[in-house]
Structure formats: C-alpha cells, structure tokens
Amino acid sequence: MNQRIVVVTGAGSGIGHATAALFRDAGDLVYGLDIAGAVPDGVASRECNVGDRASVKAVIGAIGEEHGRIDVLANVAGVVQFGRFDTITDEQWDRVHTVDLKGPFMTMQEALPYLRVAKGNVVNVSSVAGRVPQAYTVAYSAAKGGLTQLTRSLALELSPEGIRVNAVCPGTVDTPIVSEVAAMFPPDLDPRVADRLMMMLPGPAISPAEIGASIVYLASPAARMITGCVLAHDGGMS
C-alpha cells in the first residue's frame, strides 16, 4: 500500500530503461511505457505512442483508474534531429515536436487528475539544447526549449495544489541516440561546433543511470521543496 505508482515513458531503451529500473529498485510499482522495446524485468510494460492522444489517454487512464492515483510521471521518451536548417522537412519538424514537446504535454494533461489525488510530481527530460543554443539542432532545440518553459510554467500553475514539476537537461549521454546523431553530422561540420557538443568535465560520456538517478532524486521526498527546477546534468556543456 505504501508503494508509489510511477509511470516512465520511453522505458524500452536508454535513459528511460535505466530510470524505470532505478524506480523499481527503490520499491516503487513502475509502469514502463514504450512504443517498442523491452522494459526492465519487474517493470509493468505498456505499449504507448506518446505522440498519439488516444494512445496516451487509454494507457494513462487505465493506470490511473486501477490505482486511483499516479505519484510520479517521468517523461523520458524522445527523438533527436541534427542537420542544417535549410534541409529540415515538415515531417522531421513535426515528428520532433510531436514526440519531444506535445508528448509530455499530453501525458501530463492525462495524468493530472491522478497526480492531484496523490499530490504527485512530474520530471521531464529536456536537454542541454533546451537551455543553451546548439547549432544544427533547430527543430530539436525548439522542442526542448519549449519543454523547458512548459516545465517552469506548469510548476508555477500547479504549485498551489502541491504538485511539483521539474526537468533534467542531459548533455551527451551514452545511448544509441548518440550514434544516431553522429551519423547525422554534415561532412563539413565546423570543428568549433563539434567542440561545443563535448562536455567540459573530463571522463567518459554520462551514463543513462546517472541521468536516471537525477530523475529519481527530483521525484523523491528529499526534493519536496524543489519545483520549477531545470537541472543541468551536462558536464559543463551549458
């Protein structure tokens, strides 16, 4: 009865997979939402397309109605875009904004009645590109910048109800997405831009579990007085 009900989107890989496992290890009852991919053992898997309102409404509604509340919503699902501005297609722009910005908007909206019952909290995964300019990432930066401001604005709006809303802004994380981005680099990429994509602090790339630990902390009672926070977890990139 004391278990928190935790919903993690994008739980099939990368940061979402690691985050779901950390919440599970903390003793929470975790639902891992993903359009495809295997969630961690011990996490309840639910197929969900976060870019589709009907899918989000059905899955979030079923979880909320089963338990009567949702304690934590972690919006981790996301896609990337990298390329020159003049090559971005409408389809690429729409896909990034649908998943990275509209997706969290819809999941938060559908979860809100159940978050109100629990006086729960939300942690969104934005990006270093949502805090500072990043060349060749116009669509992605615009979506993540929107998510950053959505987080801050909603934190103000919901604070009187005791609902917290925070975000983590990762830098370069060791996930399959990093390889996808590298494959998108223009062959004549300005080396100064490449340098900008590297962390200031030395050492290997950030692991998904490290970002997951930040998410788990912001969702924990230890962070009960933290809301509207946009946590830079980027090794100094920003």
Mean pLDDT: 93
Q: Which bin fits the share of residues in helices? A: 40-55%
Q: N- to C-terminal separation? A: 41 Å
CATH architecture: 3-Layer(aba) Sandwich
From the spread of the alpha carbons, the general shape counts as globular
- Strand line-up of the largest beta sheet: 3-2-1-4-5-6-7
- Which consecutive residue ranges, at least 5 long each, have pLDDT under 50? none
The CATH homologous superfamily is called NAD(P)-binding Rossmann-like Domain
Question: How would you characterize the overall build of this protein?
Answer:
The protein is of the alpha/beta class. The protein has one domain: Rossmann fold, CATH 3.40.50. It has seven helices and seven strands, in the order E-H-E-E-H-E-H-E-H-E-H-H-H-E. It has helices at 14-25, 53-67, 90-118, 138-158, 176-184, 191-196, 208-218, and strands at 5-9, 29-34, 44-47, 72-75, 121-125, 164-170, 230-233. Strands 3-2-1-4-5-6-7 form a seven-stranded parallel β-sheet, sandwiched between helices. Strand 1 (5-9), helix 1 and strand 2 form a beta-alpha-beta unit. Helix 1 crosses helix 7, helix 2 (53-67) packs parallel to helix 3 (90-118) and helix 3 (90-118) packs parallel to helix 4.
